[in-house]
Amino acid sequence: MVIEVGYARAWDLEARVPWRPISVEEARERDRAGLPYVVVYRTAGREAPLEVRLVSWRDHHVGLLVYDVQGRRTYGADMRLLDNQMRLLHRYTVCWKYTRPDMVEFDQACPRVAVELFPDGRGRLTQEPQGRPGGAHITVPEVRDDGRWMERPAFGEWPLLSAQFHGVAETTAFECAEEVAAADDDSGNSPAPATCWRPPRPAQPGPMSELFRPGVRVTDGYHPEMTVVEPRRIGTLRVPSGLLAVSGPDTDHADGPHVTVPVTPGEYVLDEARARHTYHCAREQSEVTRTDTMAVRLLVSEAPAVSWEMALRPEDDPRLFIENQISGFITDGATGCFADAGAWEPLLALFEKVMTQEDPDLDPDVYEDINDSMYLLRTRDKASGGELAAFATTGDGTYPVWVGRNEAGEVVAVVVLVERMPEVLPDAVTTTDA
Q1: How many CB atoms sit inside 10 A of residue 408's CB?
Q2: CA 376 to CA 383: how far, in whole Å?
Q3: In this structure, are residues 418 and 294 in contact, taking their beta carbons and an 8 Å threshold?
Q4: CA angle, corner 271, sides to 266 and 274, nearest 5?
Q5: Where is region (Disordered) located (predicted)?
Q6: pLDDT of 171
Q7: How many separate domains does the chain show?
Q8: pLDDT tens digit sequence for 306-343
């Protein structure tokens, strides 16, 4: 069997066609420079490709898409370049098993199997035999080392990785596709369409600053329209050590706080991002207006944040993050906190004593209950002057910590969303809340 091999700058996932085809020589140069490109494998008489390989060495990423004769993706792989750029880890794979020829791509009822692997031997196998509505069965995958890793092939020496899916023999011959010339008006600098593949990215912050800007209109998915009001100042937090801890105070902290952010030693404002909305209350049979908290913030500076980034934990390796993956602090009791990391242990001990009421004679000067707020409690370490401020979240799990920086790259704010990120509505800034 002859397999036709073509190269392009990108792959349009919606149209299932290459975007801006390139020559093998240009693809080789992009490979050497670490720039993104794709490789498309086809056979005569088959409209859908056999597979599409997605390469971006600068992102430590190689992806793989396998298509059936109907043009549906049946397998996807996300491989990561590690071990001094010599080996590829099969970081994430997913297989869709369509049960009918007319079943659409990614049908909710389509059985699905996903495998996550890590360099240290850990893994996660998720099986959904009835598709997403049927529930998932999660176990630890049994994967040998040669199934976890792949040696990095040289350019032009990649095997047809989907051969087993298509029943293709190893004696396959490869042939370069004829290069398609770019349009005369294509300067080579226009961005790829939004429907094109791009390397996986971790979760992105969204319009974080707008949550603290009065007059901005947003929706949280439940209420069609909410209007951001003035941030509510709750108090301050002392961080004399210059290292801010953001963590769940209700989990095992043998290794210290989950996330830390360096700041200048000082005392900083604690506030809440809030939005007002009106809805019909069935119980009261009338329109009701209420104001809800969307996020909590430690405000380091009044300077505006020009960029936001997700704070990473010490064990995080950005090369391993799959699409929209989050990192942050973990809570089993719907609680997070901002604290002085330099006094983490005594502050946490005080928090636990107050919450469990195990010490009825506890000095009232070392803690303060906070009412009518997402903030719950503040504890103080008299020896260092450091403080901890605990706040409620809307559930258990992992909460990202977003760090805002000014033009000089300095930290100006640290934010935790207590709900999912609201969406800013068109013509966002309308009125200023009095």
Answers
A1: 8
A2: 23
A3: yes
A4: 160
A5: 122-141, 183-209
A6: 57
A7: 2
A8: 999 999 999 999 999 999 999 999 999 999 999 999 99
Query: Which runs of E-coded beta strand occur in 13-72?
Result: 17-22, 37-42, 51-56, 61-67
Residues 273 and 416 in one domain: yes
In whole angstroms, what separates CA 156 from the centre of its chain? Answer: 33
In a domain, 243, yes or no: yes
pTM: 0.86
User: What is the distance between the alpha carbons of residues 43 and 330, in angstroms, rounded to a whole number?
Assistant: 49
Which residues, in sequence order, are bridge partners of residue 87? 82, 151
Bridge-based pairing of strands 387-392 and 259-262 is unpaired
Tokens of 381: 């370490």
For the CA atoms of 290, 294, 297, 301, what is the dihedral angle to 10 degrees? Answer: -80
Residues 270, 372 within the same domain: yes
Domain that holds residue 72: 2-176
CA angle 260, 299, 212 (to 5 degrees): 120
The pLDDT tens digits of the residues spanning 29-88 come to 999 999 999 999 999 989 999 999 999 999 999 999 999 999 999 999 999 999 888 999
Query: Hey, what are 404's tokens?
Result: 């805002």
* 56-70, 403-417, 420-434: least confidently modelled range: 420-434
Nearest to 97 by CA among 86, 89, 105, 88: 105
- CB burial string 9-20: b at 16+ within 10 A, e below: bbbbbeebebbb
Do 309 and 261 lie in one domain? The reply is yes
Q: Same structural domain for residues 156 and 235?
A: no
Closest CA to 399 of 308, 317, 344, 336: 336
